Amino acid sequence: MRGMMTTLATVWRIASPYFRSEDRWPGRLLLGAVIAIELSIVGLTVLLNSWNARFYNALQDKNWDAFVYQLGYFSVLAAVFVALAVYQLYLNQWLQIRWRRWLTRAYLDHWMAGSNHYRMQLLGDAADNPDQRIAEDINSFIQATLNIGLQLLNSLVTLFSFMIILWGLSAEAPLHLFGMSVNIPGYLLWAALIYSIIGTALTHLIGRALIALNFQQQRYEADFRFSLVRVRENAEQIALLNGEPAERDRLLMRFGNVISNWLAIMSRQKKLTFFTASYSQAAVVFPFIMVSPAYFAGAVQLGGLMQTANAFGQVQSALSVFVTLYRNLADWRAVVERLDGFDRSVVAAQALAVTPPVIAVTPGDGATITLKDLAVQLPNGMPLVNATDISIAAGDKVLVNGPSGSGKSTLVRAMAGIWPFGSGTVTVPKNAKVMMLPQRPYFPIAPLAAAVAYPAEPGTFDNAKVAELIAAVGLPALVTRIEEEAHWNRMLSLGEQQRLGIARALLYAPDYLFLDEATASLDEPSEAAVYRLLAERLPATTIVSIGHRSTLAAFHRRRLAFTRAGEHYALREGGLTPAE
């Protein structure tokens, strides 16, 4: 019960914001309509229960007129039921898509806000496969919450409606044992209650392991799918290394997790199905066993027998909703736990950015980027880089180099405000445009012009301007493909991608441009041409380059070097001669 209450509290926390959002009134109206239709269907079920008695009495009495009338009455109820069922499905699906649209946007906002997605990766796998959680789990959560909620509401209303009927029928058809009438008030109701409690308890005992198994199955499926995507995205490197056997073994290992967990689910569901199927079949005849002695004793007519059996079945079914929904409840709870884990990971990533000690990136009034008492650490708390009283003035051309693994790229991340581990202050001129170009630039699957202009909206920059810059960085063959949509990170070599990254920098013309090995895949003459192009097109831009080539010194007026200082590195002035 504690686990169920915790799950319900989590469901409320995930579900309720939509019904308080800007889309709350359409959502509330649709939910209200779906609930009203569900209650109407229960009302029809009550009417059909009364119809059972009249219809079967007409058959027993061989009353043709009453029989025809009851057929007509049933036809009207059936037509109303069909109309209600159709519109309940339609309105339910309409609510689902509106709710999913809002919840997906909310999760995307939380995931993408303030580099949360990046910090969540730094924290580890607390929220594995966020793509699955947003694309699949949200949809599953909404569908299951509505379906299970409506079935529980139906069961609750049905229970109270038929409890009254069944109590009255218990008096009309008293219990007969060994030819004697035994007066037990509401005995049919108590029999249904005992039958359902036993079934519910045994179902949970047999099937509770499915909750954890379903959770793991979702995770293993997502891990396998992610590994397949990784192979597709790195096909060239795998082929060059003849890594197909290793990748095949790795994929089969992950798929083996899918298979072994699925076999465990199969075994548990087999046991659960044995019980639930037996329970359901027994439930068909159980009410007749309870009422038939009164029927054969002549205390009740055929219509009363059928009405009592139907009412008993409705109460028993309502009380046994846990049995019939158990598999769905197990799947639903696994989805709820996955979304809750995602939420907790988002909160942890948000806290990581503001919980001291943190690296503070603050706006300044001057025209200089300053690093004040900056101490960059690894996620485990180990010191990595210290930078004390380092200034980069407007118009500076600074070369940063040092040994591999000394933390050069991590320092850039800290200056960009996405690396939270450490302390100190990075002051950036107020309203300054800062751009960081990594070694492997990112291009969305989009027309080439939009990919280069990313993250601006398509159409923000003139295509002719983008085409001119693509030609200027040495890719004239791509100019004719400016409107072609493709996976550019996969189609182009890393050198070509780096040239497009430079075109992006020229397009945005930032005040401060950080190049983190952003030309490392170009040959030295091409790299020199790129730097001359930057000097020509962006004469006022401050350029900070991280690189190892000695030839880069010719394009910079100042050098910062990473030098060993005990357990960490220190960033210090290093003159113009690059370190070996």
How would you explain this protein's 3D organization?
The protein is α/β, with parallel strands linked by helices and 580 residues long. The chain is built from 18 helices and 15 strands. It has 2 domains: 2-354, ABC transporter type 1, transmembrane domain (ABC transporter transmembrane region fold); 359-573, Rossmann fold, CATH 3.40.50. The strands form 3 sheets. Strands 3, 4, 5, 6, 7, 8, 9, 12, 13, 14 and 15 form an 11-stranded mixed sheet that branches. The protein has a two-stranded antiparallel sheet with strand order 1-2. Strands 10-11 form a two-stranded antiparallel ribbon. The radius of gyration is 35 Å and the shape is elongated. The model has no long low-confidence stretch (mean pLDDT 87).
Total helices: the number is 18
Shape: elongated
Query: Strand tally, please?
Result: 15
Overall structural class, as computed from helix and strand content, comes to alpha/beta
| Rg computed from alpha carbons, rounded to a whole number of angstroms | 35 Å
Which superfamily, in CATH terms, is the homologous superfamily of the largest domain? Answer: ABC transporter type 1, transmembrane domain
Question: Key features?
Answer:
alpha/beta, ABC transporter transmembrane region fold, 580 residues, two-stranded antiparallel sheet, 13% strand, 15 strands, Rossmann fold, 2 domains, eleven-stranded mixed sheet
